[in-house]
Amino acid sequence: MKLLKKNQVIIYVIAIMIMTAGYLNFTTNANDNQSIETSMQMESKDDTLLADIGDATLVNSNDVVTGEETTPTSENQVKNESENSNNEGTEQEETQKGKEVQTNSEVTKDDYFVQSKLERDTMYSQMLETYEKVLNSSNSLETQKQTATQEITRINELKNSIMICENLIKTKGFENSIIFVNDKSISVIVESEEMKPEDVAKIQNIISREMKAEIDNIHISTK
Q1: 131: how many CB neighbours lie within 10 A of its CB?
Q2: CB proximity list for 113: less than 8 A, separation 6 or greater
Q3: pTM of the entire structure?
Q4: Do 183 and 217 touch, CB atoms closer than 8 A?
Q5: Would you call 3 exposed, middle or buried from its count of C-beta atoms within 10 A (0-12, 13-18, 19+)?
Q6: CB neighbours of 190 closer than 8 A, spacing ≥ 6?
Q7: pLDDT per residue over 49-89, tens digit each?
Q8: Could you tell me the CA-to-CA distances from 138 to 132, 134, 135, 145 in Å, in that order?
Q9: Tens digit of each residue's pLDDT (9 = 90 or more) over 83-112
Q10: Is 58 helix (H, G, I), strand (E, B) or coil?
C-alpha cells in the first residue's frame, strides 16, 4: 500500500514536470512567434520608411533635375548675352581699328609730304652751301665763282617758285603737294584720291605760269 502511494507520488511529480515543460515550451514558442511578428512589423515599417525616404529623395532628385533643366536656359541666356556683348565689342574694336588705320594712313601721307619736303630742302641747302664755299674760296677761279653765283641765284629762285606753286595748289583744294624739279622735267605729287581733268589743268597752269615750264614737261600724280 505504501509502495503504491509512493509510485503515485512519483507519477504525479513526473506529470507535473511534463506539464510544466509543455507550458514553458508553449510560452517560449509564443514569445518567439511574437518576436518574429514584431520583427516582421519592424522590417515592414523600415521598408515603408525607406520607401518614404526613397520617394523624398526622388522628389528632391526631380527638383534637382528640374533645376538642371532650368539652369541651361539661364546659361544659354547668359551665353547669348555674352556673345552679343562680344559681338558688340568686336564691332567696336573693328570700328576703332578702322579709325586707327584711317588715322595712321592720314598720318603716313602727311609724313610723306613733310619728310619729302625736308629732304628736298636739305638737298638745296647742301647745294647752296657747296656753291658758297666755291664763291668764298681764295683758290677758286673767277669763272668758278661766276658759275657758283649763278647757281646760287637759280636755286633760290627755284625754291621761291616751288613755294609759291605749292601754296597756290593748296588754294585749289589740295592740302598737301610737293614739287620736284629735274632739269626741265617737273613732277607734282598731290594728296588726292583722284584727279579730275579740270584739276589737272589748274595745276598745270600754275606750274607753267610760275616756273616758266612747258605743259608737256609737267607730270602730275596723286598719293
Answers
A1: 21
A2: 176, 177, 178, 189, 191
A3: 0.53
A4: no
A5: exposed
A6: 169, 174, 176, 177, 203, 220, 221, 222, 223
A7: 444 434 433 344 344 444 444 444 455 565 566 566 566 65
A8: 12, 8, 8, 10
A9: 665 666 566 666 665 555 454 555 576 789
A10: helix
In the numeric block, which cell numbers belong to residue 81? Answer: 548675352
> Do 174 and 188 form a contact (C-beta atoms < 8 A)?
no
CA distances from 79 to 28, 66, 82, 83, 91 (A): 73, 20, 5, 6, 18
End-to-end CA distance of the chain: 159
CA distance linking residue 123 with residue 125, whole number of Å: 5
Between the alpha carbon of residue 125 and those of residues 96, 130, 172, the distances in Å are: 42, 9, 29
Amino acid at 110: D
